[in-house]
Model the fold of this input.
Amino acid sequence: MNYDDETLMAYADGELDDALRAEIAAAIARDPALGRRVDAHRALRAEVAGAFAPVLQQPLPDRLVDAARGSATAARTRGNVVNFPARTMRAPSPPWRAREWLAMAASLVLGVLASWKFLAPGSDGLVAVRDGSMVARGALARALDQQLASEQAGSEPILIGLTFATPEGHYCRSFSARKVGTSGLACHGSGEWVIPIIDAAPPGDIRTASAPSPTVMQAIEARIQGEAVDAAGERAARDAGWDAARP
Amino acid sequence: MTAAPEEIGEGIVALLPRLRRFARSLSRNQHDADDLTQVVVERALRNQAQFHAGANLAAWMFGIMKNVWIDNRRAHGRRGEVPLPEDTGEHPAISPVDTQATLWSVSEAMSKLPEEQRLAVALVLVEGLSYKEAAEVLEVPIGTVTSRLARGRAALAAALSGEQKGGLA
Done:
């Protein structure tokens, strides 16, 4: 049986339905030439993704950060606490203070990225870069797979925050790793936890140890469909292997 | 419900690394990519009333970047297709990251793709979107994304393997 290039490409990209995927996997087992064509698609994908991946770790130009924040600064100060309404800080802090803090947070993100990659390049690391995306590894992957926020003692090295489903039906979980001062968001897909955002943990008086940083919270709000799951939903999703949350 | 301004602004800041990467995969150097990113950020803020809280901010921003990039290329008569003068080999707009050989060669190969193939390759291979997500950003059917992606990949594979042979010879 021969398959056209588009089908093999979609197979290499994990885009086929289960039936066709199984059929092609069986065909590859019989025909190494098919396997080589699939490998060529994967190799090209890795090359292209890898070529542009370093852009993610470059320092952000000030002009882009300024453009994103627009001109108002005092109003934006509230943005940092808008998700924690219990903390009613009425006294307005000087705008420069927020700006300084945000600039520091941005540089911390890069520092965290660099140190994670530098300190943990091998299989024991918490993150790996694959196809231009960060994916969870090691203790982080295990915590995302197994740990329930409802059962955390609070002393675990990785703490799970919110668990929710995206409109596309993927589960995402926020996490924090206090030891490395990091919080982030991981979304499950193709058997892995892809990390679309990683950020410094909120400094100082975080309300709970697993609270996402404001930046991570923004990322959650950009993806969440409906409400975060409750303890029972979290357990059910874990027991189902984080497979396809159909809202 | 629309997002409050402060929310979308910080959401965009968090997305900047990916926006710059997507822009870099459409542009010939990081300087042009950052110009493109800035225009997209400003347009997004002006049009943020059109963004609905709960929608995917990255997909929305990628869609704006696609539109700005295509408009820009049409307005400038596809000037981007013509290689910049490289008399001395060094161009002032080339940032250090461009000196990485892989980025340079892949970027060169991508710059020769027709724009619809380049967009499909950038969204799926560089940004890691699913075919369905890429189809939504590009506002075309999934089958169209698939065929553009397949043609773009074939051209890239030919260009990159040809370059390697040339380099070894």
In short: The mean pLDDT of chain A is 74. Chain A has nine helices and six strands. Chain A touches chain B through 58 residues (CB under 8 Å).
